[in-house]
Design brief:
It is built from five helices and six strands. With 178 residues, the chain is of the alpha/beta class. The chain has a single domain, classed as Rossmann fold. Strands 3-2-4-1-5-6 form a six-stranded mixed sheet, sandwiched between helices. Helix 3 links the parallel strand 2 and strand 3. Helix 2 packs parallel to helix 3.
């Protein structure tokens, strides 16, 4: 009985180690929901290039993004490209990760306010992933991640995915709370 209890206590730590290790698997791609930005959606006067009209990271979100980047670097995990939605909160998250140059990818933009673009954007993102060489880190929104990976994420959560013939499979999940 003691061994059983010990195994149960160790399982959460083992799962976390395996999730970090998933980033080292061939074909692994990191796809992250932007760090903590309190609220839901964006205000009615939202303008893509005007951060004052958007929901943005708060101090905890900025600290969370920096901590995630630091945790990745500490483990020697590097990316060739960091692709980001054009929303201010995703771009700021991507910059604060400090994992490399950030490249805007419009297909990663949120479709929360207009689900009619969901299928097109998801197909464009999957095609972008298939065509882009190197190790990739994506920073996007919960709705986009759900469409690609089939599951939701918390703010700042990183899913490790691999492309399949019909989309993507989830290999692991990493979350550093704000």
């Amino acid at each position: 009985m003691k061994w059983f209890t010990l195994i149960l206590l160790l399982l959460p730590g083992l799962a976390q180690a395996n999730d970090w290790d998933a980033l080292r698997l061939p074909g692994a791609i990191a796809i992250m929901r932007h760090a903590l930005a309190p609220g839901t959606g964006d205000p009615a006067q939202f303008a893509l290039r005007d951060c004052s009209t958007q929901r943005n990271l708060d101090a905890r979100g900025r600290a969370q993004a920096a901590a995630i980047g630091e945790a990745l670097r500490k483990r020697g995990i590097a990316f060739d490209k960091v692709l980001s939605s054009q929303w201010c909160r995703t771009l700021e998250t991507a910059e604060l990760l400090d994992l490399g140059p950030v490249i805007e990818a419009p297909s990663l933009n949120s479709f929360f306010g207009d689900y009619s673009t969901r299928d097109r954007q998801t197909a464009e993102t999957l095609e972008l992933l298939r065509e882009t060489e190197g190790r990739l880190m994506l920073v996007t929104h919960q709705v986009n991640i759900s469409a690609i990976a089939g599951r939701s994420t918390r703010s700042g959560e990183v899913l490790v995915i691999r492309l399949t013939g019909r989309g993507a499979e989830v290999l692991g999940s990493i979350l550093i709370d704000p």
